[in-house]
Design brief:
Layout: H1 2-13, H2 19-35, E1 50-51, E2 62-66, E3 72-74, E4 77-79, H3 84-91, E5 98-102, H4 108-120, E6 126-128, E7 131-132
Parallel strand pairs: 1-7, 2-5, 5-6
Antiparallel strand pairs: 2-3, 3-4
Helix pairs in contact: 3-4
């Protein structure tokens, strides 16, 4: 008899209430979504030049990066410098803006070429990224 009573009790105890666990998981999900920063990066690590007149541009739609080796990256994907205008024009909307992140060691010629390709493709709002500081 004692054995039957233990089996009867174990069937009631075997049910697990998942509601508190789901509540905790949902709260953690909300916490991580709220605390995550939504900064768009270009996909490569570059050393930005310094400027005392640098201002933040949070409205940038597309990031173009120019590395010290002369490579051009658009939103984390390598792109040929001659095709950068068409690639960026396909990614932005009518009022979209582009930020070029040129490495400190990259050539000015490459920066001017990329800016020319963007203007030829119809992209009007182009900015060059810099870090705040300097003389």
């Amino acid at each position: 008899m004692r054995r039957r009573r233990l089996q009867g009790d174990s069937s009631d105890a075997s049910e697990v209430n998942l509601t508190p666990m789901l509540d905790v998981v949902f709260i953690m999900l909300i916490f991580f979504i709220v605390t995550t920063s939504f900064i768009k990066e270009s996909g490569v690590e570059i050393q930005r030049p310094q400027s005392s007149a640098a201002t933040p541009r949070p409205d940038a739609q597309v990031m173009v990066a120019l590395t010290a080796e002369g490579a051009v990256w658009v939103d984390g994907q390598p792109v040929d410098a001659h095709r950068v205008g068409s690639e960026v024009a396909a990614l932005i909307s009518d009022q979209g803006s582009v930020v070029i992140q040129a490495d400190r060691e990259s050539t000015t010629g490459l920066l001017v070429e990329v800016m020319d390709r963007l203007r030829e493709a119809g992209v009007e709002d182009v900015a060059v990224a810099a870090t705040r500081g300097g003389p």
